[in-house]
Amino acid sequence: MIFRTHIAFALLVGLLGYNYFVFVDTWILYFLFLFLGAGIPDVDHSKSKFGRNIFSRIIVIFSKHRKIFHSLFFGMLVAYLLFLYDKGAGFGFLLGFFSHVVLDSFTKQGINFLYPVGEFKVRGFVKSGGILETFLFYFLVILDTVSFLTST
What we know:
Elements: H1 3-18, H2 27-39, H3 54-62, H4 72-85, H5 87-105, E1 111-112, E2 121-122, H6 131-151
Antiparallel strand pairs: 1-2
């Protein structure tokens, strides 16, 4: 999936989850780390929004796309470390990260949720950047708008 779809889905998940996480002290950290979590799995892809910097170019040398940065182990470890700092930041990151890997599991490339210790690969039928994803993006924007308007 492309960046805008990940952000739209993360926002929907984040808006729905925000009302249930009563321990979130500040909405700014929650949503900041939600969006960070939604983008960070693609840090090892040179054409992604998060992969267009010098740090990412170094990462690409050591990691192939949709490997460690799409692993549940990576997401849970980072979320746990953030949770120790701020509960809202940790849960925001976790929701954003999970929203990313769930969407990527619907693509033709799929992902291996248990990399590097196991094999649980899930593949779907959606072409990244294709017409179905474009439709999904606009549908998510509508849902985001409705969710935002009904939560205030």
